[in-house]
Design a protein that fits this description.
heterodimer, A: alpha/beta, Rossmann fold, eight-stranded mixed sheet, three-stranded antiparallel sheet, 13 strands, B: alpha/beta, Pyruvate-ferredoxin Oxidoreductase, domain 3, six-stranded mixed sheet, 20 helices, 24 strands, globular
Amino acid sequence: MATTTVPPAPAKKINRIGLERADYKGAASTLCAGCGHNAISERIIEACYEMGIEPYRVIKLSGIGCSSKSPAYFLSNSHGFNAVHGRMPSVASGAMFANRHLICLGVSGDGDTASIGIGQFVHLMRRNVPLIYIIEDNGCYGLTKGQFSATADLGSKLKNGIVNDLPPIDTCALAILLGATYVARSFSGDKKQLSALLKGALAHNGTALLDVISPCVTFNDHEGSTKSYSYVQEHDDPLAELDFVPFFSDITVDYDPGTTTEVTLHDGSRLLLKKLESDYDPTAKARALELLMESHEKGTVVTGLLYVNPQAPTFIDLLNLVDEPLATLPESKVRPPKQVLAEVMELLK
Amino acid sequence: MGISEFAVKEAEASPQEKVINDMSIQVATVNGSGSQTANTVLLRAIFQMGIPVSGKNMFPSNIAGLPTWFTVRASKYGYIGRKKEIDFLVAMNPETAEEDVRGLEAGASVVYDEKLNLNRLRQDLIFYPVPFDQLVAPICPNAKLRKLVRNMIYDGVLAKLLGIPMEEIHTALKKQFRKKASAVELNFNAARVGYDYAEQHLPKRGRFWLERMDATRGKIIIDGNSAAALGALFGGVTVCTWYPITPSSSLAEALADYLRRYRMDPETGKATFAIVQGEDELASLGMAIGAGWAGARSMTATSGPGISLMSEFAGLGYYVEVPVVIFDIQRVGPSTGLPTRTAQGDILKNAVLSHGDTRHILLIPGSVEECFSMGVEAFDLAEEFQTPVFVMSDLDLGMNNWMADPFPYPEKPMARGKVLTAEDLDRLGGFERYGDVDGDGIGYRTLPGTRHPKAAYFARGSGHNAKAQYSERPEDYVANMDRLKKKLETARRRVPKPEITGAPDAEIGIIAYGSSHCAIVECLDQLRQEYGIESEYCRVRAYPFTEEVFDFIRRHRRVYVVEQNRDAQMKSLLRMEVDAAEVGKLRSVLHYLGMPIDARSITDSIVSQEEQI
């Protein structure tokens, strides 16, 4: 019997749970070419792949707007929910109550968050429900053709010359003030930083807010806009150089003491913050707020990990839930026995 | 002798016309004055005597200082609806006393605070002045407690005047205060003082008496909100997200109490439920929908204004097909309306709640027993049909105390609907979330967290095809909408059928629903006994209407639809669906005072409409 020898195919790159990068992909994006949101989707795919996240455990939710279309463009093997405008936080929270073992990625925009959804945003932040909330922040309503949103900077100009005369809502400052336990700002064009922050968020247990400046190439990328690629590149003021070391990595990182701050996250992963300018302690809440105020005055865009508290109890802890998902508890656990009803009835006689 | 004096004379002079166990007592107080204990004790004492009784609280949207009326009705016939006439008034509120007295029918009795001098107002009533302040001071040295305790004095006075044994007052107080012996003693002393005062100074003159009978043995007293909370508890609720609003708050609060008592896992001491107060009604339904999508038995409780806020999410639940239960404890609208008064004002709105072509399943409990049983069943229906289910209670049913038989334990196992597991997916090789493989309009779903590469689907409020993919194609949209319509037709055969009683061959039919039921029962007797009018009665218990409702309309010449709103909302829903030839048969009896509906008003309306035939 003749044997044909076939040269072995080059080993496909797989992650720690045996999946390829392709297993984390989504449908083809229908957003504009060059949209910052597409870059963020890429980083999400990359972070989940590299962290070895099991897609079946992920839920991805969104509200309404260009940003909110994006969950369709990553992690096809995860359940998705495109809800109503500004109300992703409530739907995501409810899903987490039902199944505490899910990993929740919420994607929103600046209009979806800071205007119509500000109420739900605020209350989500103060509850510290374990989920990642990504604001794809372009300072405008892209899907309705470029009106200002509430994160647009004072003095920013629309294409047609209209100038924004109201101050912006700083979603990061708000989140820190209200009790979010992992708050970061980044830029869709900064691959390394965004990737590290996303992985850090995946390793965190609590509400992680990532405000990612994500230019709208069609309606808000012109001269006079403070959310354009060129403006953000020129005014980006990174707090630190970020390195993420996952809990499953045995790599040791050498760094000079005094130059780097290390944050150990819930799952044992670490974020290394190599300081660039001044000392910055991301666990100091008041300092974080002060920094944001200063940057507004200077007209810079501070990026990086602004605040983290890996120890704070989450809302799931406060609810004192059983370990098994509420969704799949058997009838014997959720319908009290006959004698309980008899006891209640007796008390009412 | 004037007519009014004659009425009093007659009342006094006809001991043979004693009226036993058939009266209503109204207590008029100021809210925040602690009269609730005295009123509950009065109600319970009568209940313990074996007399069918019901209690209704007419209260303001306020915490302290505004008028409140509590009505106790005792009825040997078992009528538990509101009685239109007041037979015994306890006038404790100086603000409303004069108006309260002027509204009475001749021959009624008034127990009142002596200093109000009410006896000068009318000659045709029986007055019993009581010096509350002088009586309370010696038995309650603590001035702060006096305001609360003085109400117990009228319980004692009524006990003497009506014939309630004092030991029943004592037993009721022990039930009320459980182990607080000092509170029992203080309050009982106050009642005793009232009893003794009446014995010495208030010779009985009226016709009304209470006597022991045996019609409450084994019965319970409960409000509809507690009953609904028990329904949710035994319906296996796992997530309840809510926002405070009268009159539904007490449902969520009762549920929280029951869950903490009966649903902590005995092995771990941890909760098998999440109960969360949301930031508003939008978030409350949003969270419940998220939880329902992820597989929990989830619910919220609200009232009209909350329903208005929830309408966008209700449409999402319908179109994405997420199970969720919404208890709507209806109150008087529009807008803020009369927040503490009762109505059936959300029937039409909830049937079609949200924009676009939307239809919802409504369950309409007509008693506290049904608040419980439909509370259980709503979770089954929501999961079987993967859709929001509304339980349409109201303030009268929800917040007032009702006598009932003990609730039967749900014997049917929980129906969790069409949910595919990883093993199912292995066998099937995949699924279409919005397909219709069974031909009943209901697709199969998977829960997030199902460990299978084919489990995921994308739920979305935007247009989608059978595979849950975004689609704006006309044929996809139409196929989906038609399937949803088919699902509603399946539900039509599954929801609770109406309860039909009376004479099928009678000319007239009466349709009613919800808390109107108890008044209708009494009205049917009035029509028969006083006017010789026979009728058949159909109590609608769900929307979509089942075929029995249409058959009922077909077999009668005139059909009176009785409801507690101005615009004949249920009749409007019926008109949308009955055959064109039947539309003319439908007539209305409408009651929208904010007060619970009463039999006499319904009878009068039907009789006057019949007279015009």
